[in-house]
Amino acid sequence: MNEVRAEPLAAFLSEQVGSAVTVGELQRISSVGNAREPWLFRASWDGGDERCVMLVKAEAGQLETTLGPEFSTIAALDGSGVPVPPARWLDEAGAAFGSAFFVTAWVPGTADTRVLRKPEGDTAIAAVARQLAVAAARLHAQDPARFGHLTPTSPETAASDQLDHWEELFRRQRLEPHPGLVYALRWLRERLPRAARVSVVHGDLRFGNLLYDGDRLTALVDWEMVHLGDPVEDLGWVYRSLWSPARSLPFEEFLAVYAEEAGRPVDREHLRWYEVFNEVKHSVISLTGTRSFADRATTSLRHADRSATVPPFVRRILELIMQAPSC
Amino acid sequence: MLNPSVIDLLVGVADGLRAEVLEVLEPGPARDQVTAAIAIVRRVARALPGLVPYLLADIDDLQATLALLGVPPDAAAPRPDPGTDGLDVLIAFDLTLRDRIAALAEPDGALELGAPERRILIDLLGRMTERDAGLRLSPWER
């Protein structure tokens, strides 16, 4: 990671705005995310003053993604009814200080997930989860033609495109055989579902990747895995046990809110396929982190033994497969 | 040196880092690194006593399952002797067996996977995840 400094950032922003920009209050924000390093600053120029968030692409880690699709998606969603931070500037070439980044306007809210662990649940979180269901349905209702920066797919190939992508990564990144994941990939390949429609899929839609202010959802963030695909993929991710708001709003209620907004029900076996797929996907993300550390592409110790998280994912895969009509 | 034991040593390192280093570090990358290092050291200390029994149980189970599936043992790779072979030999042998199981699970694997074979395979995979949970190397296993 190159050093983030106010002067080159100000020079870059001045070019973008077309007048002299000063950058103040530059500070790193703590984050549990791995792919982007978030910074907060205030940009001021003649006739403008805005609090901004800058997301700097991290060194190799758990994900191999570029910033362009993420930034363009956020920009395309402005005014769509899907809550996103207003997109401002992109430096994909890393011209300002050597690392790629993009800037959005600051949005109030927190991504704190500790409240999800309250045994009795939380009424504010229940309200936010309902708004998340509505936001997901609105996102999935967007016209894919407006997202030409994303790789196209079709209802027939949405599942296999994603499975191909993550299987290729699995075979490249694993440091040991992982027979449980090999079997899961086979199980998925034998049951590829057809998407009801092609949608914009957030790819990491969950608590922790959204901002909320009290009982109000203010923004969906962390779009680094956005793609065109099957909308059910997001539904198979949003209530995984690591970040589930189920203590505040049961999954069935979430799905009911989603189905009402989307105007169609969610098929449970279709959903199961994506639940299994998402356990595989998260496993591969973990394997990629460990591979990056093992290859010294990153020195971040958070990635060092990340593959030790895979067995609980495989346990969940086996539970889901055993509950299916055929295993 | 047998005392302090390797485990006591690792726990002591984690405690020392926490008390003398972590406490004085400001939030930021250095603190994140030390926090992660302490967590890894503690997990390794937690898992270390069970590692050899884990490997031996895994090897026994994998060999028995391969036999149940009618896959002949590899005569060129005899089972290691835990009395004389080191940990690296046990791990390498276990990985060889896991590789053979993974090959069976592949879509183009040598074995036709009917319902009974799938059940045997899934049962094995379930026992493997239980053993992993018992080892407690995962940050999400308590």
What does this structure look like?
The complex is a heterodimer of chains A (327) and B (142). Chain A is an alpha+beta fold and 327 residues long. Chain A has two domains: 6-105, Phosphorylase Kinase, domain 1; 114-323, Aminoglycoside phosphotransferase (APH), C-terminal lobe (Aminoglycoside 3'-phosphotransferase, Chain: A, domain 2, Alpha-Beta Complex). Chain A has helices spanning 6-17, 67-77, 123-140, 158-173, 179-189, 232-235, 251-262, 268-294, 310-323, and strands at 21-28, 36-45, 48-57, 87-91, 101-105, 199-201, 210-213, 216-220, 227-229. In chain A, strands 1-2-3-5-4 form a five-stranded antiparallel beta sheet. In chain A, a hairpin with a 2-residue loop joins β7 (210-213) and β8 (216-220). In chain A, α5 runs antiparallel to α8. The longest helix of chain A has 27 residues, at 268-294. Chain B is mostly helical. Chain B has two domains: 6-49; 50-135, no CATH class. Chain B has helices at 6-21, 29-47, 51-68, 87-105, 115-135. The model of chain B has no long low-confidence stretch (mean pLDDT 91). The chains are: A alpha+beta (327), B mainly alpha (142). The interface between A and B is medium-sized, with 30 and 33 residues.
Flag low-confidence runs of chain B: none
SS strand fraction of chain B: under 5%
Question: What percentage of the residues of chain A does DSSP assign to strands (E)?
Answer: 15-25%
Q: Number of DSSP strands of chain A? A: 9
- State the assembly state of the protein chains: heterodimer
Average of per-residue pLDDT values of chain B:
91
Helix vs. strand class of chain A: alpha+beta
Please count the beta strands of chain B (DSSP E, at least 2 residues each): 0
Radius of gyration of chain B: 20 Å
How many separate structural domains of chain A? 2
Which term fits the overall shape of chain B? elongated
Fraction in helix of chain B: 55-70%
> How many domains of chain B?
2
Q: What portion of residues of chain A is helical?
A: 25-40%
- What's the CATH topology name of the largest domain in chain A? Aminoglycoside 3'-phosphotransferase, Chain: A, domain 2
Mean pLDDT of chain A: 93
Runs of chain A in which pLDDT lies below 50 for 5 or more consecutive residues are none
If you compute it from the alpha carbons, what radius of gyration of chain A comes out, rounded to the nearest whole angstrom? Answer: 20 Å
Given this structure, which CATH class of the largest domain in chain A is correct? Answer: Alpha Beta
Order of helices and strands of chain B: HHHHH
Structural class of chain B: mainly alpha
